[in-house]
Design a protein that fits this description.
Largest sheet: 9 strands, mixed
Structural class: alpha/beta
Shape: elongated
Number of domains: 2
Strand content: 25-35%
Bound molecules: pyridoxal-5'-phosphate
Number of strands: 19
Oligomer: single chain
Distance between the termini: 23 Å
């Protein structure tokens, strides 16, 4: 935690908790480093579903080539927060209204998920034209990863043998310009595994295009760059990834590669800060009950991991009774929800944790607040603080 952020977190009163802290300077530096690590010819899009907070998007805008959206809602949001930014629209189950919205303008690529979707699209086109990628579910074993989206039965993308039907529809229709292939096959990959996958996707895509006489100009490799919640310091190796992509592209000088990471871009800039309300001992285990919970930060429940955290000691205690504490023992950190699933971290060794101390959960900048069930139990929503090196921009809102 940067000193400025730590000071801000330490300065929060009990009633200011829980709060989300976003470190905009950290995000800016991280995004710039990712961009710098990639070859200039590789396009970097940010997958907005990881976190579409407008202030984060505003920072990212200067460092990415565009944004990937997966719904009409995200499309509208991006068009109003980042007007003019290139947008790719992907995701399964696009409705006719969403396709129409995409065709009305501002969408630079539409990722086709199925033959049905292509029929819907061509039915809506009229005089208009559109640039598409076909999303393919390649028969590539992705191994043990956090989330596998391809290489197995899946609602995402097209099986390779189904591509030909789509190709026939596109070839007969000059309004649909087929630019290439999209393959977002897995998430949670390290740089070596992702490069290996990228190589196999490129080999497959170029062979397919050659066989079918298709002019392949673009391949979108998706996102899925890994985030290690158990070892937050071990980040995706963007330098190695960039070097590997540069090498891969040597064999394909006319190809444009695009990636669309989400989690690995914004996860590190977000913190969920709260306080310990109670320390309880139950049947030999110690529980710290925190203000807030997985209705604000569902990530550990969704991914079944321990959310990493830092304890920020608060030394004042003005009650008349003895302050409950845990000392040099394993503690399970839970929230205020009346369900045993409301666990943020299970059986984690702590030096000392007392009622009234603050706990700052890291890696809360992606798939955190926005995937959580906010209304469950009707506790107050957290406030959001965007911290930047320019103090005028800092402060809570919402
Ligand atoms: C979710 C998603 C991404 C981003 O994945 P991350 O794991 O957040 O990097 C990119 N592309 C598509 C098609 C997705 O569904």
């Amino acid at each position: 935690m940067r000193p400025q952020l730590l000071r801000h977190a330490a300065g929060l009163g009990a009633e200011d908790c829980p709060a989300y802290l976003y470190d905009l300077q950290d995000l800016r530096e991280h995004a710039a480093a990712i961009r710098a690590a990639l070859p200039g010819s590789v396009q970097l899009f940010y997958a907005a579903k990881a976190n579409s907070d407008p202030r984060l998007l505003g920072v990212l805008r200067d460092h990415v080539d565009g944004f990937e959206v997966a719904s009409g809602g995200e499309l509208h949001h991006l068009q109003s927060t980042c007007p003019g930014a290139p947008i790719a629209f992907g995701g399964p189950g696009k409705t006719p209204a969403e396709l129409e919205q995409a065709l009305r303008g501002g969408v630079d690529r539409l990722h086709i998920e199925s033959e049905q979707e292509l029929h819907l699209l061509t039915g809506l086109l009229g005089e208009r034209s559109v640039d598409v990628l076909l999303r393919v579910n390649l028969p590539i074993a992705v191994g043990p990863v956090a989330l596998a989206m391809g290489g197995q039965p899946s609602p995402f993308g097209l099986d390779p043998q189904r591509l030909d039907r789509c190709l026939a529809l596109v070839t007969d229709d000059p309004r649909v310009r087929l630019r290439g292939i999209h393959a977002h096959l897995a998430s949670g990959l390290g740089a070596t595994a992702h490069l290996d996958l990228a190589g196999r996707v490129l080999t497959w895509a170029t062979a397919w295009a050659d066989q079918r006489g298709v002019e392949l100009t673009e391949v979108n490799l998706g996102g899925g760059m890994g985030v290690d919640y158990g070892r937050p310091d071990r980040r995706f190796d963007w330098a190695a990834f960039g070097t590997g992509l540069r090498r891969l592209l040597e064999g394909h000088p006319d190809l444009t590669l695009r990636i669309e990471p989400g989690r690995s871009v914004t996860v590190y800039c977000g913190w969920y800060v709260t306080e310990v309300l109670d320390i309880k001992r139950s049947h030999g285990r110690v529980f710290a009950v925190l203000r807030g919970g997985t209705h604000h930060l569902r990530t550990p429940a969704a991914k079944q991991h321990n959310q990493p955290f830092t304890v920020i000691p608060v030394d004042t205690w003005d009650r008349s009774w003895k302050r409950p504490e845990a000392r040099d023992e394993a503690v399970t950190l839970v929230g205020q929800l009346c369900t045993p699933k409301d666990v943020l971290a299970r059986g984690v060794q702590v030096g000392r944790l007392r009622v009234g101390d603050k706990v700052a959960f890291s890696l809360a900048g992606a798939y955190a607040w926005n995937i959580s069930h906010h209304e469950f139990l009707m506790h107050p929503a957290p406030r959001f603080h965007h911290l930047d090196h320019a103090p005028a921009l800092a402060g809570p809102h919402r």
